Amino acid sequence: MNQKYRVTLLFNANKVYDRQIIQGIGEYVQSSDCDWELFIPEDFTTHLEKPHHLNVDGIIADFDDPKKH
């Protein structure tokens, strides 16, 4: 039995580029044999300072400074 991995995606879904990255990750997960459970928090900025509190196996993120956008 394969282990299921919990992966959080920290992206700003209001940005076109970030939505394309999220779409690409989804396509990769569907087309591969990896068993990932993906999470996309509504407000990704709340997790930028303390991502270890997310209780996940991995994080894929765009850490642009949200204050500059």
TrEMBL record:
It holds the Pfam family PBP1_XylR. It comes from Parashewanella curva. Residues 6-67 form the Xylose operon regulatory protein N-terminal domain. This is Transcriptional regulator. InterPro entries: Peripla_BP_I, XylR_PBP1. It comes from the Bacteria.
